Amino acid sequence: MAERRVDQRGGRSAREGTGSTVSGGSSGEAQRRSVRAEEADAWGALVATARRTVTDGLVVGTSGNVSVRVGDTVLVTPSGVPYDRLTPADAVGVDLDGRQVLGTMLPTSELPMHLAVYRRTGAQAVVHTHAVHATAVSTLVPELPSVHYMSGALGGPVRVAPYATYGTEQLAENMLHALTGRSACLLQNHGTIAYGGSLDQAFDRTAQLEWMCRLWLTASSVPGLSPSLLTGEQVAEAGERLRGYGQPG
Questions:
Q1: DSSP SS3 for 93
Q2: Per-residue confidence (pLDDT) for residue 32, from 0 to 100
């Protein structure tokens, strides 16, 4: 397989992050290799998606993270580095056991959540944000009320994973329970996580979830009135119809 050699030195050291829970050892212990052509392309798409989470108001500063799977390698945003500073030379990658195989910067501290999703599902990309409306909803209810049929596009009513400290295996476990039968969930007092078959799909699901949370908060704020909610059957029916939505192919 052809490889595209990328200078992994970049302009920053591996100490620039805020910490990592990589199970296979620290960034300094990793045996790194050169970046393959498909990984370089995927890294470019990952960086573009990460920057979009900022421009679309889903992330402030470095408060979220994005990953994409290429074969058995997971490319992931580094810890504590603003997305507008990331270059092609900054690619960070780990294997499915969390051992770093690409780059010198530390992976995101939320790596356990990302890897848990890849191990449990057929996901090809994961987006995690601290979107404001979704985070607000996560502090109020155990499940986002079904105020719109697009809940069906995420597999059904969106659950809230109980709070656990960021970057921990407990948070990853709580998240997996909330994701059962779903492609997105809320993280209590924390934010959102969504996955998909591509970066675009994972991002779109994240944006849709934030929109539904904003919709419910807006409707719920009218004094003396409560928003009408859809039944489980109505959400399920919409989900089935949405499977065939869009252009074929």
A1: strand
A2: 83
CA pair distance 121, 123, nearest whole angstrom: 5
Q: What letters, b where the CB count within 10 A reaches 16 and e where it falls short, cover 95-127?
A: beebebbbbbbbbbbbbbbbbbbbeeeebbbbb
How far, in Å, CA of 102 to CA of 91, rounded?
A: 7
Residue 29 annotated among the catalytic residues of the structure: no
Here the tokens at position 215 are 């919709």
**How is residue 61 written in tokens?**
């500063």
Is the pTM higher than 0.70? The answer reads yes
pLDDT one-digit tens code per residue, 33-57: 899 999 999 999 999 999 999 999 9
- The ranges of the chain with pLDDT < 50 are 1-30
- DSSP class of 246: S
Cβ neighbors of 218 (< 8 A, separation 6 or more) are none
Closest by Cα among 136, 181, 140 to 158: 181
- Catalytic: which of 110, 169, 233, 237? 110
Phi and psi at 51, nearest 5°, equal -65, -35
